[in-house]
Amino acid sequence: SDCIPWDDDCDVGMTRKDFNVLLKNIDKFNDIFFLDCIETNKNYPHRFAKLKLKGTCRPDGYAYFNNVDNCLWVDIFIFDKSLMPLTYVQHLFSIIFNSARLYKIGYKREKVRCVFIVKLLSYLPYNLLKFFVLFSMKIFNILPFGNFVCIGHVKKTLTQRYQKKVVKDMERIMKTPYQEPTTDEIMQNLAPKMQF
What we know:
By secondary structure, this protein is an alpha+beta fold.
């Protein structure tokens, strides 16, 4: 009934525009990180991205699947514009096309929504399926209005209330019981290293 701001990894949100800047500049950090996403890895199963730390190892439920590296990672949830009545439709289309993309490359899930449609769509060329996954998430970005929603993970919406609650909870958690540094202190240390 409440927001739990942690699980087994870190989550970062950014708009599609910012993500495109990261995607364009990721080669500047190739010796430390790599970006795992639909755009960079044909076998990547998710609709959100992961920034992975090279030379580390951490078990992932998807790691057994075709060349998905199981390094330490930060999830990157990409926020695209959506018109609220159509958010679920946008989400559903991206799931169906992504499921068809994964089915085509041999990844078979036990639970697949719209099995017949997924199997039928999997006959389309891979690049066309990839295009439709991304298109269904980005379709409303050209509009001057709309709400930012993470279509790749529709439960995460970009609102001031959500941001403030997570930051407030993280500040409280990080200060107790070990007196870890605050989020601001961590960001001050990381900011000079992560400039583009």
